[in-house]
Design a protein that fits this description.
Blueprint: E1 6-12, E2 25-31, E3 42-44, E4 54-56, E5 62-65, E6 74-84, E7 93-98, E8 102-104, E9 112-122, E10 131-137, E11 146-147, E12 165-166
């Protein structure tokens, strides 16, 4: 018959005409019609969270994600990680397939904006929706701030004084 999604247990034993019974055998069947649940958390280690995207000062960041949940076991490898410089998943490239819940990029990325996606696949080939991460990599220090006046020893009788200075810039991301 048509089984619904879930776990089914079957029990089997033989009984002869004299009432003698064999030992019971059991079998479990998991009917899984769904993909793993979308991965709940995906971030870069040490990143500063921002609604526009996480920011990190590391050119080889470690990406971390939470374990996927599925009715059946996850595939081996369970997780697929992709990345790109565009927010379009279609233009992304495969990075790694792994069973781990983290991955450190082996090669340094230039300062800029990168997009990462992680998804999980179960043993039946169902793939979860991808969880995305927008990551700003900025390893360049801002310029040294400068005083907007010639500061030599200035003598004053006041206990407060406004010191004019030029705002430093950060050429990478602002």
């Amino acid at each position: 018959s048509n089984l619904t999604e879930g776990t089914w247990h079957f029990y089997l034993k033989a009984i002869d005409g004299y009432g003698n019974e064999s030992a019971e055998q059991t079998a479990t069947l998991v009917v899984d019609l769904s993909a793993p649940a979308i991965i709940a958390d995906f971030s870069a280690q040490g990143a500063i969270s921002d609604p526009e995207g996480d920011m990190v000062a590391d050119s080889t960041p470690t990406l971390e994600w939470s374990a996927a949940v599925d009715a059946s076991d996850l595939a081996d490898p369970a997780y697929d990680l992709r990345f790109g410089t565009s927010s379009s998943y279609a233009s992304s490239s495969a990075l790694i397939s792994t069973n781990e819940l983290s991955y450190q990029l082996p090669e340094a990325l230039a300062d800029g904006i990168y997009y990462f996606w992680v998804s999980a696949t179960d043993v039946l080939g169902h793939q979860s929706e991808s969880r995305s991460l927008k990551l700003y990599i900025d390893t360049t220090a801002p310029t040294v701030p400068e005083f907007n006046t010639n500061i030599v020893p200035i003598y004053t009788k006041y206990t407060t004084w406004n010191i004019p200075w030029l705002i430093p810039t950060d050429e990478t991301l602002g």
